[in-house]
Design goal:
The protein has 211 residues and is α/β, with parallel strands linked by helices. It has 9 helices and 7 strands, in the order βαβαααβαβαββααβα. The N and C termini lie close together (11 Å). The structure holds adenosine monophosphate.
Length: 211
Amino acid sequence: MIKMNIVLLGAPGSGKGAQAEKIVAKHGIAVIGTGNMLREEIKKNSELGKKAKQVMDAGQLVPDGIILGIVNERLKQPDCKNGFIMDGVPRTIAQAEALGKITKIDIVLDLEVSEKVIIERLSGRRFCPNCLAVYHVINTPPKKNGICDKCGSRLEQREDDRPEAVKKRLQEYALKTKPLKEFYKKKGILKKIDGGQPIEKVFSDIENAIG
Ligand code: AMP
């Protein structure tokens, strides 16, 4: 059991969600996954969900104010006291600066992957619109083709995993998120991880990094 505040940094498809799941399963810390939080809102058809859906489907970033609002609320929940892992947040310098004022980040794991791997992972990714479980048609397929192992719902492709949106997401990443590497490097808490390896090997490198 570790008690650490961890940020997972990396391009779309770098494996942040998969690794966050493994860290949570092993160490029992809280997960703060803004993409999943927003998809929950979309599922509920809330005002926030309606606002976020258009932006997300187009592959753009949701405004900082909205993200900081939901993360701030999440951090107030008691399970975050024993450490947390942030998956997909911060994604801009403004988010990182604001976060630095409300919580302390111990380590930032930078999952590095080639563009070739990103495209392979995103084009084969499928998700369950009901329980949000994630699969990959080749790397981690469900037992029954196209059906969620956990709840039996029919799997779908994320709207933003389609080629046009992927292109936009990679541009957004390069422009707005990549500068976070330098931001956290200067703070001396950035650790590079080779995210192109098989899931288990990436996880063991992460385990070594967080000690
Ligand atoms: P993800 O599931 O992490 O790939 O996020 C899916 C989408 O949700 C992103 O492409 C953004 O539109 C939105 N999103 C998630 N987290 C953030 C964030 N920290 N800042 C801005 N937009 C976000």
